[in-house]
Amino acid sequence: MWAYVVRRCLMGVVLILAMTLVTFTLFFATPIDAARYACGKNCSEEQRDITRAALGYDKPVVEQWAGFIKGLFAGRDFPLDEAQREAAPEQVTHCAAPCLGFSNFNAKTINEMVSEALPVTISLSVVALVLWLIGGVLFGILAAMRQGSFLDRGIVGATLVIYAFPSFAIAVFLLNYVAIKWGVFPYPKYTQIADGGVVEWFGNLLLPALTLALLFLAGYVRMTRAFVLESLTEDYIRTANAKGLQRKKVVFKHALRAALTPLVTMAGLDFATLLGGAIITERVFNYPGLGLLTIQANAAFDLPVLVAVVLIAGSFVILANIVVDVLYAYIDPRVRVG
């Protein structure tokens, strides 16, 4: 088991390194002069050259990538140009490992920006995950237990109708009507647990998290329903029914356990995708997470921030794949051999 875990972790490290190289190539090999945006509209050519050297844009892409990888382990000092650091040592900014870069537009390290935005996105993703898992599994089981009935068709049909709506439409509806017009919930504003407690933290996250949960709900309802129905046709389920076990016990204790394995895979990958930033939802509710940070960086063409967000999102997906593979290997030992 441990040998399998080590192999998957080593493969994940290789994938992350390859992803960073591809990301740097795509972003920094573009014909757009990133130094012009980092310096500002009114900068002279001399000031742009200084900015270009300070951020390392004057070096080849491979050398920039090597410096970035080194910064992940040892940290970096900005500006990157040694002459500028010696000329103005009081303006040197140290970026501790793992250093993701420096935003000249915001005059702060990207580590600081991510440390402020990431807790918001994690909180939003966790609450959304809990909502869509509970709703998807419960409604899926209910539909499977009432297969072919009006309730079964109603559940599947309703979730598909909700799934047909784009995320911004659901977000705008919940914000404008549920929160503002009807006043069912207070206007959502992110609050840390340390500031307002768990109840206020959860209450402010409920509407944006519900927006994300509704998008995933239909898939989990249909998957749960299909896997439970498939499990109910197995021989061990027939044996359990022949022994006279209650219907609920057969479904929840035996059929659902077999259906959880593929759901774990879906949940892990979907959760990792959300951790990369729920861009539309965070924008509508004005939540200062990675999604809103991405929009702001894109508007200002803040290239280091965009690169960092892409790498963070990709790393979450790779790590989620590793965790899911390890869980699979634990549940089904045959996976370790393959």
Automatic annotation (TrEMBL):
Q: Which SUPFAM superfamilies match?
A: MetI-like
Where does the ABC transmembrane type-1 domain lie?
Answer: 118-328
A Pfam family cross-referenced in the UniProt record is: BPD_transp_1_N
Would the keyword Membrane turn up in this protein's UniProt record? yes
Cellular compartment(s): Cell membrane
GO cellular component terms, semicolon-separated = plasma membrane
TM spans, by residue? 122-143, 155-178, 198-221, 255-280, 305-331
PROSITE patterns in the cross-refs: ABC_TM1 (PS50928)
Its principal location?
Answer: membrane
Q: Which UniProt keywords apply?
A: Cell membrane, Membrane, Transmembrane, Transmembrane helix, Transport
Membrane topology according to the record? Multi-pass membrane protein
One Gene Ontology BP term is:
transmembrane transport
Q: Does the keyword Heme apply?
A: no
Tell me the PANTHER family matching this sequence.
DIPEPTIDE TRANSPORT SYSTEM PERMEASE PROTEIN DPPB-RELATED
Recorded family membership: Belongs to the binding-protein-dependent transport system permease family.
Identify this protein by name.
Peptide/nickel transport system permease protein
What's the source species for this entry? Nocardioides albus
